[in-house]
Amino acid sequence: MATAMISYGSLALLVDGEWLGADGRETQDVLNPATNRSIGAVPLAGPDDVQRAAEAAGRAFAGWRTTPPERRAEILHRAAALMRERREEIAPLVTLEQGKPMKESRNEVDFSARVTDFSAGEAERLYGTVVPTGPLGERTLVIPEPYGPVAAFSPWNYPGIVPARKIAAALAAGCTIVIKCAEETPASGVEIVRAFHDAGVPAGVVNLLFGVPADISTALIRSPLIRKVSFTGSIPVGRHIATLAAQEVKPVMLELGGHAPVIVFDDADLDKVFPGAVSSKFGNSGQSCGSPSRFFVQAGIYDEFVERFAELAGRIRVGDGLEPGVTMGPLANERRRAAIAELAGDAVGVGATLVLGGSPIQSDGFFWSPTVLANVPDDARIMSEEPFGPIAATAPFSTLDEVVARANRLPYGLGAYVFTSSIETATVVPRALEVGMVGVNRFSLGGASTYFGGVKESGYGSEGGPEAVRGYTTPKLIIQG
Q1: Residue 392 contacts residue 236 (beta carbons within 8 Å)
Q2: Exactly one of 183, 289, 386, 457 is catalytic; which is it?
Q3: What is the phi-psi region of residue 21: left when phi exceeds 0, alpha when psi lies from -120 to 50, beta otherwise?
Q4: Is the dihedral of CA 161, 162, 163, 168 positive or negative?
Q5: Nearest by Cα to 390 from 371, 376, 377, 407
Q6: What is the DSSP letter of 409?
Q7: What is the dihedral of CA 195, 196, 197, 203, to 10 degrees?
Q8: Catalytic residue among 184, 255, 457, 463
Q9: Strand, helix or coil at 399?
Q10: How confident is the prediction along the chain (481 residues), in pLDDT tens digits per residue?
Q11: Which of 121, 198, 293, 421 is the most buried (most CB within 10 A)?
């Protein structure tokens, strides 16, 4: 699929049901990471746009919270249907501005629809509790109430899924939302929001902004109209968002970075570990918070693992995600290439062996070769810093207690993966790992209907499952005499 054949379309903000273009607003170029060329210009919201969006969400909340759950569900189901109908229009936009191969972009649109459908169902399952206490004739109830208008912030690496998750869960709970999507990948956010808008969401219930991140986040979080904050992104920015929200005494959902350990015991069936290890590690060019990044392999099978892993990774076809047969696209920007180069160089400098890759691919775009490192010491930076790119660090281990301690030594606590044929090991190790999610004998951290979140510095709250919708509600006690 040639870039010239794709209509990138016009980019706009959505405020109080009105699409607002570039007229009278500053703009920012959007680059195709496969070519480093501009493909459009996204309008940046000014202070008046931000204020108007918050006011619109505040006004719309009174009507949306009292909209019957079955009606909210109906609208969300319709939005999901529109995402599916428009998949072949949306997926090329995801690839064009984010870089991932078309197969991954189509899967992203499909998952966005699934999570929207799931949240629609949860809108009708927000049950309260009748507490059997007090004398006859008295009723004690605990019911979930929507927090109110939400300020949400989504990143560039999954520009369809993350906005869909936040919008669908908030709306299912009865909240309204102002979402700021990533300026690097605006068309994806526009099309996801457009699906909700076209499905019949009332004006002001969903508002979309782009702009200077620090300015918009500060203005929205400090607005007395905003009652809840949701952020997905890096740990440093997450800390800043949490600090702003704490100053305003507002609850926050944070889904931050990860550094997922993969623990492969010597009784694991390596035929089942491969090729999932490669597709999971190098999918989205490794730019995923749940991406496996530290591969701890028991010493007895370590050499075989590294050899097979590198051989399979070497088959990856890197290129423009719009081209047929490409299985890994570019990194998002030049900063990511520089970061990967530093991590690879540091690892080799402290004793690691470069088995595969380790260099940029010469091109106008931001391409990096799939990279595998062996015998990486724990004091290498890549064993402590989230790589967020197509580089896999591997190291041998001897005992269960040793590898659990090494896996748990970091402040990250999002996901982990364990491979073993022992029922005892498969039971004990996931419980011992300090993470929010564990895949056992599979590279999966759930789906549209499951919890998605971390512990420690990887954040708190859930982006998936019933917990995501419940996270936009607060319990209210009612005692009737």
Answers
A1: no
A2: 289
A3: beta
A4: positive
A5: 371
A6: S
A7: -170
A8: 255
A9: coil
A10: 555 567 787 899 999 999 999 999 999 999 999 999 999 999 999 999 999 999 999 999 999 999 999 999 999 999 999 999 999 999 999 999 999 999 999 999 999 999 999 999 999 999 999 999 878 889 999 999 999 999 999 999 999 999 999 999 999 999 999 999 999 999 999 999 999 999 999 999 999 999 999 999 999 999 999 999 999 999 999 999 999 999 999 999 999 999 999 999 999 999 989 989 999 999 999 999 999 999 999 999 999 999 999 999 999 999 999 999 999 999 999 999 999 999 999 999 999 999 999 999 988 999 999 999 999 999 999 999 999 999 999 999 999 999 999 999 999 999 999 999 999 999 999 999 999 999 999 999 989 999 999 999 999 999 999 999 999 999 999 999 8
A11: 293
104 token code pair: 């991954």
CA distance 152 to 87: 24
Rounded CA-CA distance 344/368 in Å is 12
Which of 468, 429, 474 minimizes the C-alpha distance to 255? 468
Residue 310 structure tokens: 């590198």
- Give the torsion through C-alpha atoms of 19, 179, 154, 230, to 10 deg: -170
Question: What number of other Cβ atoms are within 10 A of residue 188's Cβ?
Answer: 32
Q: What is the DSSP letter of 201?
A: P
Strand order in the sheet with 139-146: 129-131, 139-146, 473-480
Structure tokens at 75: 């609208």
Cβ proximity of 196 and 177 under 8 Å: no
Walk me through the domains of the chain, giving residue ranges and CATH numbers. Answer: 3-257+458-480 (3.40.605.10), 260-411+415-447 (3.40.309.10)
Q: Which residues contact 310 (CB under 8 A, 6 or more apart)?
A: 355, 356, 372
Going by the DSSP 8-state scheme, the letter that residue 298 receives in this structure is E
- Please identify which residue in the block is written with the tokens 């759950």: 69
Residue 120, phi-psi category: left (phi > 0), alpha (psi -120 to 50), beta (remainder): alpha
Rounded to whole angstroms, the Cα distance separating 287 from 307 reads 24
Residue 328, φ and ψ in degrees, nearest 5: -150, 130
Residue 267: HSE in the Cβ half-sphere, 13 Å Cα cutoff: 9
Q: Where are the alpha helices (DSSP H) in 124-181?
A: 161-173
Q: Which residue, among 294, 291, 316, has the nearest Cα to 388 in the 3D structure?
A: 291
CA distance 433 to 195: 39
- Rounded distance, CA 293 to CA 282, Å? 10
Told to judge if 191 belongs to the known catalytic residues of this protein, a careful annotator would answer no
What are phi and psi for residue 264, nearest 5 degrees?
-115, 110
CA angle 161, 224, 158 (to 5 degrees): 10
Question: Is 289 part of the annotated catalytic residue set?
Answer: yes
CA-CA distance, 167 to 210, in Å (whole number)? Answer: 16
